[in-house]
Design brief:
Layout lengths: L1 H12 L4 E7 L8 E11 L5 E10 L3 H9 L3 E8 L2 H11 L1 H8 L7 H13 L5 H4 L8 E5 L11 H11 L8 H18 L1
Parallel strand pairs: 1-5
Antiparallel strand pairs: 1-4, 2-3, 2-4, 3-5
C-alpha cells in the first residue's frame, strides 16, 4: 500500500499520467496482460523508477508470453493510479459507447439516478479496458514495478492453489481431487455453454 501511496504522490505532480503497477513476471502466463517498460521518466518518493509504457499486450500467445518473460516485461496487475478526471477523459476517447450513457446520469443518491445507472449498465457493450485502452498505450501511460511481492491473478482455482502452495499456507484438508473436481465442473459448464 505504501507503493500505491508513493505513486499517488507522483500522480499529484503529473495529473496527465495513468500509472499501472506492474509485477515481476515468474512464468510465461498467456492469460495475463504484459507491459514493456520504456524510458524512465520519474522516480517515486521511495526511489523506484517510473517508466513510459513502450508496449502493452493483453493475453498474448504462449510463444509471445515466453518472449515477454525473457525480455523482462512485467505482468499487468490492473492496479491503476490516476486522477478521476483523466479516467473520465480516457473513457470518453476510447470507450465513447460506455462514457456517453454514464455522462447523462445525475450524481445524486436518488432512485432516479440508481435506475438510470442500472439501465446504462444493462446496455453497455462488452469491452475490455486492457484491449480498448491500454493496448493503444495512450499518452501518459506509465508503469511502476511493484516492490518484491508475490503476485498472481487468481482467475482460476489452479492459480489460487499454486499461490497458497508457494506461500506454504495450503490447508491440510485440501487434496488434489478438490481442484480436479472444480476444474472439471468449470470445464463442463463451459462446454454446455457452447
Amino acid at each position: 500500500m505504501q507503493h500505491v501511496a508513493d505513486i499517488a504522490e507522483v500522480i499529484d505532480e503529473h495529473p496527465d499520467w495513468l500509472a499501472l503497477l506492474g509485477a515481476s513476471a515468474s512464468d510465461p502466463e498467456s492469460d495475463y496482460g504484459w507491459i514493456e517498460p520504456g524510458e524512465i521518466v520519474a522516480w517515486s518518493p521511495a526511489g523506484e523508477p517510473i517508466s513510459r509504457v513502450r508496449q502493452f499486450l493483453e493475453k498474448p500467445s504462449p510463444l509471445t508470453a515466453h518472449a515477454c518473460l525473457q525480455k523482462g516485461w512485467l505482468w499487468n496487475t490492473f492496479v491503476l493510479v490516476a486522477k478521476a478526471s483523466l479516467l473520465i477523459d480516457i473513457g470518453s476517447r476510447f470507450l465513447p459507447e460506455v462514457h456517453e450513457p454514464l455522462s447523462q446520469i445525475p450524481f445524486d443518491d436518488g432512485p432516479a439516478a440508481a435506475d438510470a445507472l442500472r439501465e446504462a449498465y444493462r446496455f453497455f457493450p462488452k469491452a475490455s479496458f486492457s484491449r480498448c485502452v491500454l493496448q493503444f498505450c495512450p499518452a501518459g501511460l506509465v508503469v511502476s514495478r511493484l516492490p518484491m511481492v508475490s503476485w498472481s491473478d487468481w482467475g482460476t482455482p489452479e492459480r489460487v492453489v499454486k499461490s497458497l502452495r508457494k506461500a506454504g499456507v495450503l490447508p491440510r484438508w485440501f487434496g488434489e481431487s478438490d481442484l480436479v473436481g472444480q476444474s472439471g465442473a468449470a470445464a463442463s459448464r463451459r462446454e454446455r455453454g457452447r
